[in-house]
Amino acid sequence: MFSDPQQLYTLLMTAAVFGLVLSLWLLAVVFWVLARKRRTTVVEQRLKLAQPDQTDSSGGRVLRLWHEGRQATTVVPGLSGGGGLSAWLKRLRSSTGWESPLSNLLLGLTATACLAGAAAYLLTSSMIASAGAPVAVVIAFYILVTQRIAKRKSIFERQLVDALDLAARSLRVGHPLVGSFRMISEEIPAPVGELFAEVCQQQQLGMGLDQALRDVARRNPSEDLKLFATSVVIQLSSGGNLADMMERLANVIRERNRLARRVQVLTTQTQFSKRILLALPFFIFVLLNVLNPEYMVPLYATFIGQCVLAASAVSLLLGWMMMNWIAKLTP
Questions:
Q1: In this predicted model, what pLDDT tens digit does every residue of 153-193 receive, in sequence order?
Q2: DSSP summary character for residue 55
Q3: What percent of the chain has pLDDT over 70?
């Protein structure tokens, strides 16, 4: 394979340069993460947010309120990050809204990746292409899952505001809280309707309403739902006007959604630049294959060319991940 020493030297130099660039990129990312974490810790300490004694064993934050000389304690549900890989995959499937069992989804993804790898090897007779095809299938599946979760989250936020308005009107005409939840489950479609139907079902089976709300909020990644569950639990513990609380909460969530849409508009330019930078290498690659196929033959016929293609794919993937990380808005 390496009859020419110059060819071996070129391959080693290419691999060394690629490894050096990748190491420098990873080192810069590590330093950036550490600096950001240090700034976040300083801000939390100045705002007195870092209070380890204010959390419970489930990861939620304990709130203690005083009402008429008595202490009311509740737990703000936190993100359920425990349980390992299986629990994380189940939460991911639940966030997408797919009804198929997790085993069927994983089996289908594995079969598709294997078929893609076999097809790539039959078409190109290259081990690099056959190894890259399953990776491309997994990346495409991940992009599909993230897009579906984002779309479902947007629908959930809009429906939650409508559900709170409906619950407030129902409470004002004299319906009980469980009755208003049941009305939401009948009038609002999925995903919000199914969530409130689950709360009503758990309450009918004997579970306390506050515990049912905590469990549902803990399994759902929506911060608005956690805020709603915490507010209802506090009102049930200390007393208050539930209708007014739901109206105010609906206004708060509506304003948060309006602000999020405004921020999304302001970051549209960054997202557009990201798509252009990612699409440009593919466009040039296809254009060169159409205009001058002989010029691109060494990329397919030689081992060094195949390594260059693999390194380019990895670089594009790392660039896509980094740009998504930079453009991601975190509370």
A1: 888 888 899 899 999 998 888 888 888 999 998 888 888 88
A2: B
A3: 81
* Cα angle: 299, vertex 304, 309; to 5 degrees: 50
For the question of whether the overall pTM of this predicted structure is more than 0.70, the answer is no
Contact by Cβ (8 Å): 209, 203: yes
Tell me the pLDDT tens digit for each residue of 128-158.
677 778 888 888 888 888 888 888 888 888 8
**Burial grade of 179 (CB within 10 A; 0-12, 13-18, 19 or more):** middle
Q: What's the residue count for the chain?
A: 331
Average pLDDT, the chain: 78
Residue 300: how many other CB atoms lie within 10 Å: 15
CA dihedral 42, 43, 49, 53 (to 10 degrees): -10
Type of residue numbered 136 = A
Residue 60 and residue 223 in contact, taking contact as beta carbons nearer than 8 Å = no
Give the tokens for residue 78: 């936190």
Q: What does the domain layout of the chain look like in residue ranges?
A: 5-50, 63-260, 267-331
Question: Which of 250, 251, 216 has the alpha carbon at shortest distance from 233?
Answer: 216
CATH of 63-260, one of 2.60.120.10, 2.60.40.420, 2.40.128.110, 1.20.81.30: 1.20.81.30
Q: How far apart are the C-alpha atoms of 11 and 67, rounded to whole Å?
A: 73
CB neighbours of 85 closer than 8 A, spacing ≥ 6?
none
